[in-house]
Amino acid sequence: MDERTALQMLAADLSGAGDDAAVVGDTVITTDMLHETTDFPDGTTRYTAGWRAVGASLSDVAAMGATATAAVAVYAAPEFDESDLLAFVNGARDVCEAVGAEYVGGDLDGHQEFTVATTAIGDTDDPVRRTGASPGDAVCVTGTLGRSAAALRFFESGDVERANDLFRFTPRVAAGEALRDHATAMMDSSDGLARSLHQLAEASDCGFDVAFDEVPVDPSVDDVARDEADRRECALHFGEDFELVFTLPEAELETIRPAIDVDVTQVGTVTESGSGVVADGEPLSDRGFTHGGE
């Protein structure tokens, strides 16, 4: 059973499950776990690990349209090296400061593999769910896609400085706040754009019609992609980019652009239930980042 199947099973018994974060009153809360073997390629600095791990949870807060307030982390490793530990905390603190939140501590544990568990909280009295997309809405993304796919190639080739730089994404908290009163459905793109669209389609009981030529592919992808098919794979299916994928009435798109601190690109349109997720006239495969997958 992979992560997605397990989550679907658990959601049947957990009424609050199904969005990027849980909602408790006016608080949103989310937690994540990352491992060295699956999430931190050789060459990932502890500073980048701290930034990326905490950033992943802050991205979930952003996807709810919430104001991020605080984060904590569990740092587990075979031994505690002073410079590694301080670098991790500095990365965690800096990503929090980048979005106006505070890193407030956590826990330490011994473990055979470097492993991080993070939790972030935020505030909103009107969270954006995955369930409100309607036919005719525009479907949009923030920023660019494919950064993490390119970073992995740079790690593999030994260009660890560039790889670490690409791995340190900015959680789109400010954009999420700006979209809170406009977006009809929203989530982050940690599982990849294609899978995110399928998840939104399932939650909102709708379809999507998108055009690959409209997808904002990060320039770094062009430095590593083997061909156009590989470029498409990096942008649509690799995931781990932590941008926002959202829908809103098309008439509101130009209104919200000036209020958002990052580029927003319309990649397609919401279609009727049963029409599926289509890219360039063909069914878009439901593939993306999955823990426990083959």
From TrEMBL:
<keyword id="KW-0460">Magnesium</keyword>
<feature type="binding site">
    <location>
        <begin position="106"/>
        <end position="107"/>
    </location>
    <ligand>
        <name>ATP</name>
    </ligand>
</feature>
<dbReference type="Pfam" id="PF00586">
    <property type="entry name" value="AIRS"/>
</dbReference>
<keyword id="KW-0067">ATP-binding</keyword>
<dbReference type="GO" id="GO:0009228">
    <property type="term" value="P:thiamine biosynthetic process"/>
</dbReference>
<keyword id="KW-0784">Thiamine biosynthesis</keyword>
<feature type="binding site">
    <location>
        <position position="20"/>
    </location>
    <ligand>
        <name>Mg(2+) 3</name>
    </ligand>
</feature>
<feature type="binding site">
    <location>
        <position position="32"/>
    </location>
    <ligand>
        <name>Mg(2+) 1</name>
    </ligand>
</feature>
<dbReference type="GO" id="GO:0005524">
    <property type="term" value="F:ATP binding"/>
</dbReference>
<feature type="binding site">
    <location>
        <position position="60"/>
    </location>
    <ligand>
        <name>Mg(2+) 4</name>
    </ligand>
</feature>
<dbReference type="GO" id="GO:0009030">
    <property type="term" value="F:thiamine-phosphate kinase activity"/>
</dbReference>
<keyword id="KW-0808">Transferase</keyword>
<feature type="binding site">
    <location>
        <position position="240"/>
    </location>
    <ligand>
        <name>substrate</name>
    </ligand>
</feature>
<protein>
    <recommendedName>
        <fullName>Thiamine-monophosphate kinase</fullName>
        <ecNumber>2.7.4.16</ecNumber>
    </recommendedName>
</protein>
<dbReference type="InterPro" id="IPR036676">
    <property type="entry name" value="PurM-like_C_sf"/>
</dbReference>
<dbReference type="GO" id="GO:0009229">
    <property type="term" value="P:thiamine diphosphate biosynthetic process"/>
</dbReference>
<feature type="binding site">
    <location>
        <position position="188"/>
    </location>
    <ligand>
        <name>Mg(2+) 3</name>
    </ligand>
</feature>
<feature type="binding site">
    <location>
        <position position="30"/>
    </location>
    <ligand>
        <name>Mg(2+) 4</name>
    </ligand>
</feature>
<feature type="binding site">
    <location>
        <position position="130"/>
    </location>
    <ligand>
        <name>ATP</name>
    </ligand>
</feature>
<comment type="similarity">
    <text>Belongs to the thiamine-monophosphate kinase family.</text>
</comment>
<feature type="binding site">
    <location>
        <position position="107"/>
    </location>
    <ligand>
        <name>Mg(2+) 1</name>
    </ligand>
</feature>
<comment type="pathway">
    <text>Cofactor biosynthesis; thiamine diphosphate biosynthesis; thiamine diphosphate from thiamine phosphate: step 1/1.</text>
</comment>
<feature type="binding site">
    <location>
        <position position="32"/>
    </location>
    <ligand>
        <name>Mg(2+) 2</name>
    </ligand>
</feature>
<dbReference type="InterPro" id="IPR036921">
    <property type="entry name" value="PurM-like_N_sf"/>
</dbReference>
<dbReference type="InterPro" id="IPR010918">
    <property type="entry name" value="PurM-like_C_dom"/>
</dbReference>
<feature type="binding site">
    <location>
        <position position="31"/>
    </location>
    <ligand>
        <name>Mg(2+) 1</name>
    </ligand>
</feature>
<feature type="binding site">
    <location>
        <position position="60"/>
    </location>
    <ligand>
        <name>Mg(2+) 2</name>
    </ligand>
</feature>
<keyword id="KW-0479">Metal-binding</keyword>
<keyword id="KW-0547">Nucleotide-binding</keyword>
<feature type="domain" description="PurM-like N-terminal">
    <location>
        <begin position="18"/>
        <end position="122"/>
    </location>
</feature>
<keyword id="KW-0418">Kinase</keyword>
<dbReference type="InterPro" id="IPR016188">
    <property type="entry name" value="PurM-like_N"/>
</dbReference>
<feature type="compositionally biased region" description="Basic and acidic residues">
    <location>
        <begin position="284"/>
        <end position="294"/>
    </location>
</feature>
<feature type="binding site">
    <location>
        <position position="39"/>
    </location>
    <ligand>
        <name>substrate</name>
    </ligand>
</feature>
<dbReference type="GO" id="GO:0000287">
    <property type="term" value="F:magnesium ion binding"/>
</dbReference>
<feature type="binding site">
    <location>
        <position position="20"/>
    </location>
    <ligand>
        <name>Mg(2+) 4</name>
    </ligand>
</feature>
<feature type="binding site">
    <location>
        <position position="190"/>
    </location>
    <ligand>
        <name>ATP</name>
    </ligand>
</feature>
<feature type="binding site">
    <location>
        <position position="289"/>
    </location>
    <ligand>
        <name>substrate</name>
    </ligand>
</feature>
<dbReference type="Pfam" id="PF02769">
    <property type="entry name" value="AIRS_C"/>
</dbReference>
<feature type="domain" description="PurM-like C-terminal">
    <location>
        <begin position="135"/>
        <end position="278"/>
    </location>
</feature>
<dbReference type="InterPro" id="IPR006283">
    <property type="entry name" value="ThiL-like"/>
</dbReference>
<feature type="region of interest" description="Disordered">
    <location>
        <begin position="273"/>
        <end position="294"/>
    </location>
</feature>
